[in-house]
């Protein structure tokens, strides 16, 4: 009798456990679906560890997106080509990039809207051991850049009319951290860097040869997939996003970039010494890119 009673208890316990496991699976499945739906509804933006993205980092850290009730999720990349893959594949709605890259994607069939120009600028910095000061000394030298990008365009634009003794070799180094480390380790003759990586290079006494501002072209851009920003929900999101972005810009311009030093060190994987040496930077409210800059990019990618 005792054996029968024990067996009955065990059977009841087993059934209860099975029911609990089934219920747990159902709850887990429902939770996963809820998280998937939340992610799908969020405004996801591909970002780089560079200071053109600073307003987005500040808006997130100051919880400006939360204050304005908009779910913005920043997706970090260290190579722009990986960010391109994300927006082409639709895993993000927006991307911080440059006009050359975006115009090339548009030519390949991706429909994009430009929400704003950004303050993305580059410097062409030579390795101090190469002793390069003038552009005509770049013959037979390696310049690190990224193909089909703003740095590709800037290399060609900067060398227009410049006579070199031999060919300048454009070497594709996509990851911005790898590119900087190749300069610091004396593995590259020259390269295009933006902030804060350019400041790190200057701190190690590498020489600025030229900069993108001299071309008179503003290439930085915040772009969104056209098909992903349609409808009332997305329209409301973008309106709140615009406000949060502009509030972050005002905060940066008021306090200066060094005020956000810990944030910059974290998001850009840099150090305090670099942040302390950053030049004075001014950020602008969201505004459409200049038509002439778009046309320059279009002509380049044809």
TrEMBL record:
<comment type="similarity">
    <text>Belongs to the bacterial solute-binding protein SsuA/TauA family.</text>
</comment>
<feature type="signal peptide">
    <location>
        <begin position="1"/>
        <end position="21"/>
    </location>
</feature>
<dbReference type="Pfam" id="PF09084">
    <property type="entry name" value="NMT1"/>
</dbReference>
<protein>
    <submittedName>
        <fullName>NLPA lipoprotein</fullName>
    </submittedName>
</protein>
<keyword id="KW-0732">Signal</keyword>
<dbReference type="InterPro" id="IPR015168">
    <property type="entry name" value="SsuA/THI5"/>
</dbReference>
<dbReference type="GO" id="GO:0042597">
    <property type="term" value="C:periplasmic space"/>
</dbReference>
<keyword id="KW-0449">Lipoprotein</keyword>
<feature type="domain" description="SsuA/THI5-like">
    <location>
        <begin position="53"/>
        <end position="251"/>
    </location>
</feature>
